[in-house]
Please model this.
Amino acid sequence: MISTLTLHPKRPGLLELTEAVQAVVARAGVREGLCTLFVRHTSASLLIQENADPAVQRDLEAWLARLVPERDPLYTHTAEGPDDMPAHVRAALTACSLGVPFAEGRLLLGRWQGIYLWEHRRSPTPHEVVVHLGA
Amino acid sequence: MISTLTLHPKRPGLLELTEAVQAVVARAGVREGLCTLFVRHTSASLLIQENADPAVQRDLEAWLARLVPERDPLYTHTAEGPDDMPAHVRAALTACSLGVPFAEGRLLLGRWQGIYLWEHRRSPTPHEVVVHLGA
Amino acid sequence: MISTLTLHPKRPGLLELTEAVQAVVARAGVREGLCTLFVRHTSASLLIQENADPAVQRDLEAWLARLVPERDPLYTHTAEGPDDMPAHVRAALTACSLGVPFAEGRLLLGRWQGIYLWEHRRSPTPHEVVVHLGA
Model:
């Protein structure tokens, strides 16, 4: 069973989609199985991280931005803007697909886990995340 | 088919769970399919790496600890201890879910591949890894 | 449904396998489902990245080679050559399995996404990528 979530990040960083994914699972009426997420872009990624203290998310964003800065003289692919190549590197270091099992119609996330889209560009466009539900 | 492994890491670093996962596959009596692992925590991750020379594992742990050190002045989320935010960053850079196909009731790991839980905190608590078997 | 692709990288870096994976999906005659890829080696990884400008791929390779250089005095596992331990670290920072949904017999990749094997060693050997198709 496949559906697509269209997300509209307003800024670079983490955008939570836990509830949207949980709603897809609930609507499907399947009790148990595997939910696989796939982001159809090369400048954004998927992350499961702590959803309690927003400072965790801000620190994560700041840490990765420092590790993979803009205007690195190493980059030769610069035609699409100074934030394009860092976005590709950041996406390569993080996940483009995630598998989350579910049971009783609920994602088996840990108590503090949330699912996030990680937008790596400064002027985001709408992003599609494909949700596959398997038995 | 879903089951849960509860692991008790005694120290930060890699804890092999290859045999425990293989036992879940064998007990299930399914010949062929996909085994998906999911860790229900945001300060640990899953890794497939060389299981031959223990120096590989020690070097990996040392390398990531150096890349993501404690007491980085960048961190604002410090209330849960100096090893908490580095654990989140290390988890974000590695995997929280893995898909490993199996056939003839055996995981299709390469000859030198082992499956590990990578604990990133200094005083580990028990960790749950969900194992999903699909056709 | 499981099959295996054997790839012959000629140099370190990215080797595209999008068409080979798409051919496996097309041959299977299944319209919709999940395609999971798994690389059976600990010195290579799987990546989904931009397939338009080859400079993106070169910059990615150069960036990771700089982050994880050879002859780092941290390494103790050096018996298998100066490119072995960096290959393990680079593999740990990237993916060994990927899940890509498909519909109408086509992988649901984004417009600019290609699937790559990322070979991390200087003298590559043949590499096996397992392809699992699930409903």
